[in-house]
Automatic annotation (TrEMBL):
PANTHER family: PROTEIN, PUTATIVE-RELATED. It comes from the Eukaryota. This is Auxilin-like protein.
Length: 200
């Protein structure tokens, strides 16, 4: 609740909306450089965590079944992170999505966890069936700009942390999994705010 922006000034990035003094628009503005940067930064940090834990994974891995159900096979795209042999010998498709819990706040009020729960359910509805049909596990990794993680993301990181714990006796080494992901989320939020600060 620290006023950062002059109220009603146009957003210098998207130029479609007016900034509010507390940064609500700045945090969930979908225009570059903030929105894509947020997703990619958290993805890159998560991939690095997996590598350091000794978990075999590939970033931006091509698969031939992830599509937009409304558009069909013309929209094939890679999975954010493919984790090899994650569950019962099956590879896991980890799909990241970041949302702002402030979206729709004026219309519906604030409910803790509502935004990430909705984002997680949307990802499951979109991709889980295709993954199962192709002998893969689907893991939606939903997070919000306050640093909250959806239930599937928490379960995934807890298992990664167990792998880390089995490889190190140091408590600090065991805690770095959640810490690094949380710091990445904070860093991208700061970047979105700074990008929209008025020039001095």
């Amino acid at each position: 609740m620290i006023p950062l922006f002059p109220a009603d000034d146009p957003c210098p990035v998207c130029r479609k909306c007016c900034l509010d003094s507390f940064g609500e628009h700045a945090v969930h503005c979908k225009e570059l450089p903030g929105f894509k940067y947020r997703h990619d930064l958290v993805r890159d940090v998560l991939y690095d965590v997996l590598k350091r834990a000794g978990i075999s994974a590939k970033k931006e891995a091509p698969v031939n079944f992830l599509t937009d159900p409304l558009e069909g096979r013309s929209t094939l795209w890679p999975v954010d992170i493919l984790v090899f042999g994650w569950e019962g010998g099956k590879h896991a498709c980890v799909d990241l999505t970041g949302v702002s819990p402030l979206v729709g706040l004026r219309d519906h009020g604030f409910v803790t966890g509502q935004a990430i729960t909705k984002a997680e359910a949307g990802k499951v509805a979109k991709h889980e069936k295709a993954c199962i049909e192709n002998q893969h596990v689907f893991i939606p990794f939903a997070f919000d700009t306050f640093g909250a993680l959806a239930s599937d993301a928490v379960r995934f990181l807890k298992r990664v942390q167990q792998v880390v714990s089995s490889n190190t006796a140091h408590v600090k080494g065991q805690n770095f999994v959640f810490s690094r992901v949380g710091f990445a989320i904070q860093k991208e939020v700061a970047a979105q705010l700074v990008t929209r600060l008025p020039a001095i």
